[in-house]
Design goal:
Length: about 900
């Protein structure tokens, strides 16, 4: 049972969230002032706010980076995190949510619930954060608490309750409607206890609402008291764990890791595993507790505390330390792309490496090196972020940069399910991957799953394939944009026991994704804004016409005094800079609020595709074809021909028709021994699953088409199995040197003369073929032929293959079985267990060296018996039906000129 500890004065992490200009930072100042943590309230417009300590924040009057401050609620210490409100910096806000115990969402009474507020509410719900609401700016004229409460319950949640009228019957009645347990308690006692309210708040069934003015500190004390009473404490494990939510650098350029302790305690000099390899162990040099610009150093940070560690190099945003799981990826993604221009003579690659430091501090800020254009591109959320980035680069790296006009970040998805297949088999490498790719719902992102039996592909290989699917941004085939809104499931795959390496599956996986995209219809997606447009009533016609022109849609206008409000959505590419037009045609009276809605079908896909002029076949870094092997060398197969070359069946094909018949099995586990695969439990289990494990009828054993192949009649009755192959032609493939070194007399001869051992084996097989009448191919490794040339030759009535210098007999046999195993009855003679497994998977029968010897001895006995029976009654008739060489030999034996061997 897990040991938990609960501190009496456990630290609480409280976040403040809001749309820009709702008064979030002002509320934070008011809370710090009333809790006596600062002597004087700063103001954003006076540029002296305690938490807005970055120069750009003070000059622009907005919060750019999340900040923290220390305060106390009663006896409970609180870490207050002030998050950015501007939509361009939403990612900074989102990653802070993962470490919050509770949140205060600030709503402007003058504006009501706006589009960005809905985005924040959705994120708070996703991360299951107990939330309080503070309706700010109630000191302004025209504000109506009753109307605002109705808007909150309608647009946010029915659980929004005004806590300004506590201990009234109306208050308890509203609480009772939020949860069944509260209703039962109210009906029984006509009151609801504080503990019950706290439980409902922590379960996100009740959302306390407070009204006031942060600037005038009205209603703020009530909010503080409400949080003190209704925010419960968490249970933390005793062993150390933590969540990293931010990376930054201090004024001296030292790398800082911001984290929340979610279990145990963090102590100075404590070693922490921050990386994946042996070098990933780092010690804690300093533990800092920040409050505004300043910080204090401590020797230990307990569970629930937000702290900062200096010096770590391997940490990253969202990382889980100790037993803490990895954090969720941000929902918000950049939608705009800009080219970064450097001064003439600048070191482009050096600049790119420096700029990547900013990428780890801001995960949604993506620095991309465009190989074709030989330039650095940055992906951001909006134009304001570009202005901040330009200033930050100049301050941090003393680099003067410029940005182009920007472009849209497109995405691609598919219209219908498709199988993507990839094969990678240059010489001495092997991997094959089959993926089922299905379109997902808009906004679902890329989902990766595995639905492949371990009998088909080992679990380790499956994990590796899933890792390769997740490790890169796969490019689409329309414009080369990243793919999204898709579910990719591993359905099948194949590895070689000897030649598969980890990198082989990476190549096969990447190629399978690209082949699947080429095999189906792709859809180009573009980002859409969700907008709220407030304009004078006389401008409504112009605004609605503009929305239509921008390929957007909007609701019927709502009237709010002298203003009309339009809400709807439109492509980012069309509404990108529309706010300038709004200001112009409303003479400054109109306002446009935009938040990212997500990706949907591109309104001008053909135009964008033509403009991008992307050719997937020329993208050599992302090939669509696969690599196969023939004659010891790899060759490339185009994407549209790949399915016909694959070694495994399609995962989309209907299952083969099954028929009932008596179970037959070549070399069943109960019928072989010695150096065969009898002792291999894994193969025996596979055999039983495939053919059944009924009891044997010992008297039912009989010879099949040739004596090296047996059938077993199972008393348990008919079982279902795929219909047998119709082709009757039989092949026997013999691994020459494997047999030579498995038979005592041939091994002894080979020690003296390898050529003699080869010749004797070929003579024995010639005699055997003459009686059994199947096609015999004996394969020898590249001992005879030098210079990489394969030699095929006919020896009497059998075929002999000397492989090329770099090709083994195993490889040649596997390739041959794959080519003919589905058309003919093929048996392979070898005592190599790994080779037996591989050829069994291709559908061929197996025969060990011992069994081949027994089969040949059995054949000799049959020949001797037939000879004895017919020697006095026209043996010539028997031998006349044999091939010339064997017939002449047997005639010599019959006449006594040679001894029968």
């Amino acid at each position: 049972m897990q040991n938990n500890k609960k501190s009496k004065n456990q630290n609480m992490v409280l976040g403040i969230l809001a749309h820009v200009d709702a008064g979030k930072t002002t509320l934070a100042e008011s809370m710090l002032y009333l809790c006596k943590n600062i002597r004087k309230m700063g103001r954003v417009d006076h540029k002296d706010a305690f938490l807005d300590n970055y120069e750009m924040e003070r000059s622009r009057g907005i919060t750019i980076f999340s900040k923290q401050a220390e305060l106390t609620l009663g006896e409970r210490p609180v870490t207050l995190l002030d998050t950015p409100g501007h939509a361009d910096f939403s990612a900074e806000m989102e990653r802070t949510l993962q470490v919050l115990d509770a949140a205060v969402m600030v709503i402007s009474a003058a504006d009501g619930v706006r589009g960005h507020d809905l985005v924040l509410w959705k994120l708070l719900k996703q991360y299951r954060i107990p939330t309080f609401l503070f309706i700010n700016k109630m000191d302004q004229e025209g504000t109506n608490p009753k109307r605002l409460m109705q808007e909150l319950t309608t647009k946010l949640d029915d659980g929004c309750v005004d806590f300004g009228c506590e201990d009234t019957q109306e208050f308890y009645e509203k609480l009772a409607l939020c949860e069944e347990a509260l209703l039962e308690e109210h009906l029984e006692h006509e009151r609801i206890t504080q503990d019950s309210i706290r439980r409902a708040v922590m379960a996100r069934n009740v959302f306390p609402c407070f009204f006031g003015s942060a600037l005038k500190t009205q209603g703020v004390q009530e909010l503080l008291s409400g949080m003190e009473h209704y925010i419960g404490e968490r249970q933390y494990p005793q062993e150390f764990c933590a969540r990293v939510y931010k990376i930054s650098r201090d004024a001296r350029g030292e790398r800082l890791t911001h984290l929340k302790i979610t279990g145990g305690a963090l102590k100075v000099k404590m070693p922490i595993q921050t990386g994946k390899d042996a070098d990933g162990m780092e010690k804690v040099d300093q533990i800092r507790i920040y409050s505004g610009e300043g910080y204090r150093m401590v020797q230990e940070a307990e569970a629930g505390r937000i702290c900062t560690v200096s010096g770590w190099q391997n940490s990253y945003c969202g990382q889980g330390l100790g037993s803490e799981p990895e954090g969720e990826m941000p929902v918000l993604e950049p939608v705009l792309s800009y080219s970064i221009g450097l001064e003439p003579g600048s070191d482009v690659h050096g600049a790119y490496l420096r700029l990547q430091q900013l990428e780890e501090e801001e995960p949604t800020l993506r620095m991309v090196w465009d190989e074709e254009a030989q330039e650095i591109r940055v992906m951001v959320m909006g134009e304001v972020q570009i202005e901040i980035l330009e200033h930050l680069i100049a301050e941090r790296f003393a680099m003067k940069v410029s940005f182009d006009s920007g472009s849209i970040v497109y995405r691609e998805t598919i219209a219908a399910p498709v199988e993507g297949v990839g094969h990678f088999e240059p010489l001495r490498h092997y991997a094959e991957v089959h993926l089922l790719m299905e379109p997902g719902e808009r906004g679902s992102g890329l989902e990766i799953a595995a639905d492949c039996s371990e009998d088909v592909l080992d679990k380790n290989w499956q994990r590796l394939i899933v890792t390769h699917l997740l490790e890169k941004q796969h490019r689409g085939v329309l414009t080369g944009a990243e793919i999204t809104d898709m579910r990719i499931t591993l359905k099948s795959g194949k590895a070689h026991l000897k030649h598969t390496e980890g990198g082989d599956f990476r190549q096969a996986t990447y190629r399978a994704v690209r082949q699947g995209l080429r095999s189906t219809q792709s859809i180009l997606l573009e980002p859409y804004y969700q907008f709220r447009l407030e304009i004078p009533t006389e401008c409504v016609g112009r605004a609605m016409s503009d929305v239509t022109r921008m390929h957007g849609e909007c609701s019927m206008p709502e009237t709010d005094g002298e203003l009309s409000i339009l809400t709807g959505s439109a492509p980012v590419s069309e509404m990108w800079d529309y706010h300038r037009e709004v200001i112009a045609y409303t003479r400054g009276a109109g306002r446009l609020f935009c938040t990212l809605k997500g990706y949907d079908v591109c309104h001008n896909a053909d135009q964008v595709i033509a403009q991008k002029n992307y050719d997937p076949e020329q993208d050599l870094a992302n090939p669509t074809g696969s690599v196969f092997c023939a004659h010891g060398a790899g060759f490339v197969v185009p994407w549209d021909e790949v399915p016909t070359h694959m070694h495994l069946e399609s995962c989309l094909q209907p299952k083969r028709r099954e028929t009932e018949f008596t179970a037959q099995a070549h070399f069943a586990p109960g019928n072989i021994g010695g150096d065969s695969w009898q002792g291999d439990k894994e193969l025996e289990e596979i055999f039983n699953r495939t053919y059944g494990s009924g009891k044997e009828n010992r008297s039912g054993w009989g010879r099949s088409r040739f004596a090296g192949s047996y059938e077993r009649r199972v008393e348990a009755g008919p079982v279902k199995r795929s219909a047998p192959k119709e082709a009757l032609k039989e092949y026997l493939l013999v691994d020459g040197y494997n047999i030579i070194f498995a038979w005592d007399e041939l091994r002894e001869l080979a020690a003296v003369n390898v050529e003699g051992a080869r010749g004797l084996l070929m003579d024995i097989l010639s005699n055997y073929q003459g009686y059994r009448r199947m096609t015999v191919i004996v394969v020898f490794d590249a001992y005879k032929v030098e210079g990489g040339v394969q030699e095929n030759m006919k020896y009497h009535n059998i075929y002999v293959v000397y492989t090329k210098e770099a090709e083994t007999a195993d490889q040649y046999i596997e390739k041959t079985v794959h080519e003919i195993g589905k058309k003919y009855h093929v048996t392979v003679a070898t005592s190599d267990l790994q080779e037996q497994r591989i050829i069994w998977g291709e559908g061929a029968a197996r025969m060990s060296a011992r069994e081949l010897r027994e089969e040949i001895e059995r054949t000799r006995a049959e020949i001797r018996r037939d000879y004895t029976e017919q020697n006095t009654s026209g043996g010539n008739r028997l031998f006349a039906s044999l091939p010339g060489d064997l017939a002449a030999y047997m005639e010599e034996v019959r006449l006594g000129r040679k001894k029968f061997e």
